[in-house]
Amino acid sequence: MTKIVISGTGVFTPPHAISNAELVDSFNSYVRSHNEAHAEAIAAGEVEALQESSAEFICKASGIEARYVMNKSGILDPEIMAPRLPQRANDEPSYLAEMAVAAAHKALARANKTPADIDAVIVACSNLERPYPAIAVEVQELLGIEGFGFDMNVACSSATFGIQAAADMVRAGHARAILVVDPEICTGHLNFRDRDSHFIFGDVATAIIVERAETCTAKGAWEIISTRLSTKFSNNIRNNFGFLNRAAPEGIGAKDKLFVQEGRKVFREVVPMVAQLILDHLSAEGLEPASLKRMWLHQANKGMNDFIGRKVLGREPAPMEQPNILQEYANTSSAGSIIAFSKFSEDLSEGDLGLICSFGAGYSAGNVILRKQA
Ligand code: CO8
């Protein structure tokens, strides 16, 4: 069978960071002014008082300490509590395309490739800036790539689903090399007034190049040994924003048109599902969990990753066996496991095995088993 490799990766990190303390300060100002404004109704039991958030809780419950964002001032302004990104004119690059291109340049450089070597672009992410034209076709245009492009959304698992799609298409001969990009402006759909989730997400873009081993000239590429995807319907992570909202105007602006989740249920249900998916996949490939040198797991919650690591390895994983980046980036949806892979894979040696694993809304989960090349 034709050998397929990931020959380059790139990460675009937005210029602004927000610490937990800054985010909590803004949230708590909002809570205090809300409670003051509704003091009488709260005293009469007609309105429930809002509770303050805490930086200690956020760090303890999730492992998140900070996040990068495309716009800081709007998010931290207690009167706004949302990013402010003015609408771009049609002849300007869209935000997602611009971020994707920045990550793509880095991945192309690492892969020793130019746009002329790429035949397709897949934009795989959770929140697309518009329904059409596809962001991928715009990325193609901005980079000068011939061929074709399309967008796809499998929430936090978009990147691994995109990698499998790209690997299959390259193997089948539909493209020589494919650029898979995961631009995520998660803050656009995060409810910064919701205490349970206001701290969860950040913004970023990642890119990878998938090609045949025989065309790869980059040192230290990663052979894609095998991929496995799984989905199981759940309403526990949901967003009802969509094109039919205008057909039901009474719901426009309601909380369910932003990210909503039952965090506890997600934690409880997804951890065993993902651990089993990894164990079954390794077993089907005749691989022992102990043969994995590294796991680049989805970056939603440190406790979740610790659980999955323990279940897969049957012991306490060492921190570098499954590096986390969520303390710095928070949850960046589809991009999280790719940031971890991009930042923590160069030190491994030829022949080492690793696994990228994503999981999230859907539910959806995806594995990519990799072997380091010379
Ligand atoms: N500050 C202080 N206290 C708080 C806060 C806060 N901010 N929030 C909640 N509390 C309190 C609660 O009131 C509760 O108090 P009590 O015990 O008195 O009732 C206590 O803390 C515990 O609350 P929870 O049970 O809610 O807290 P958890 O320990 O479960 O932690 C987490 C919450 C961190 C959300 C955790 O459940 C978690 O991480 N779960 C997994 C979530 C997950 O993996 N989600 C994946 C979503 S990502 C995805 O699929 C992509 C979707 C598309 C992206 C869209 C971009 C916007």
Q: Biggest sheet, strands in spatial order?
A: 5-4-6-7-1-8-13-12-11
Beta content: 15-25%
| Largest β sheet strand count, sense and barrel closure | 9 strands, mixed
Low-pLDDT sequence parts: none
**Count of discrete alpha- or pi-helical segments spanning 4 or more residues:** 11
* N/C terminus separation: 19 Å
Full CATH superfamily name of one domain: Thiolase/Chalcone synthase
- CATH fold descriptor of one domain: Peroxisomal Thiolase, Chain A, domain 1
**How helical, in percent, are the residues?**
25-40%
How many E strands? 13
What is the 3D shape?
globular
Q: What is the average of the pLDDT values?
A: 97
Question: Class of one domain in CATH?
Answer: Alpha Beta
SSE-based structural type: alpha+beta
CATH architecture of one domain: 3-Layer(aba) Sandwich
Bound molecules: octanoyl-coenzyme A
Layout of secondary structure:
Layout (H helix, E strand, L loop, with lengths): L3 E9 L3 E4 H18 L1 H5 L11 H8 L3 E4 L3 H4 L18 H16 L9 E5 L10 H9 L4 E5 L5 H15 L4 E9 L17 E10 L9 E10 L5 E2 L21 E2 L1 H22 L7 E6 L4 H12 L12 H4 L6 H8 L9 E8 L3 E9 L2
Parallel strand pairs: 4-5, 4-6, 11-12
Antiparallel strand pairs: 1-7, 1-8, 2-3, 6-7, 8-13, 9-10, 12-13
Helix pairs in contact: 5-6, 8-9
